Amino acid sequence: MIRAFLETFLGSFGRAIYRFYEQYSLLINGFIILYALSVFLAHQTFHSMFKEIRKQLQLEEGREMGNKKMTGLIDRSDLDWKTIMKKTWFPFVAIPGKIAIHFKNEANVQRIFSKDNLMVLLSKPDQDKKVATTGK
Fold it and tell me: Rounded to two decimals, what is the model's pTM?
């Protein structure tokens, strides 16, 4: 009964899409779940590589540093991109908050962790520490 009620509101084009989805729903839903899992793992890859970059820059957790010092540190450092990329096994990387995934190659990783992006990422306060210090 619900199906008949739904089809009256869809129109001819909507019914065609609905039938297509109904026929291939297992494949479509499987693809969506697989992509969601890939995005999750790509975000984990980003965080692992960012942790390795912090390690290579010899930045301690919670250490405050001015923008000039941070810029100088990033300019002077020669990051080993191969080591950073080998930190995780997953072949994709995604920027947190985004659902687009990119292949994990040296050009993409250098673009994602460019000097400007690193300045923004390194100047953000850690949310975990913020919660821990406020007692909430």
Answer: 0.78
